[in-house]
Amino acid sequence: MKLPSDAKINAYLDAVPAANRINFVQLPNDQIPLPGSNPRKFFPLYIESHKPHVKAAVAKLLHSESASDDSPRLSGFVFDMFWSLGLMFHAHALYDDQNMHTAELKDSDTELEVPSLINPIPAKVLPSTYLEKDWSMIVFEQARRARRVKGIVVNSFMELE
Known about the structure:
elongated, 2 strands, two-stranded antiparallel sheet, 2% strand, mainly alpha
């Protein structure tokens, strides 16, 4: 799924050569309104609009897999939201367990001690999704969902990043 507002990343994804170990499946983009001022309405609509495309792509992969003995086996999905999973879990824990919202750190000199990072991270370099209340609530919901998955792939080579 390509975000409609991120031309730089979309151009990079279009330029990535087909690797023999990873198959990138590009999903169609539905025409939905851009985020505007309410990302809490945009993001769920964006995800919902892609569910039929994901189901169709998986069905196609499974069908081609069963039709040929030499076709690659579907092993999993890589979902990359361009943020550190450790940071996402930590920010969510701060919100749920300590009633502290990362949006309160906007323009602050505070440094966060994130368990998955060696050094503290200055709040002023947090991704903007953590510093805006509406977007950060989406991040926290994604953290809740990520905790329920059966496995997580950690980037182990540059081509995934």
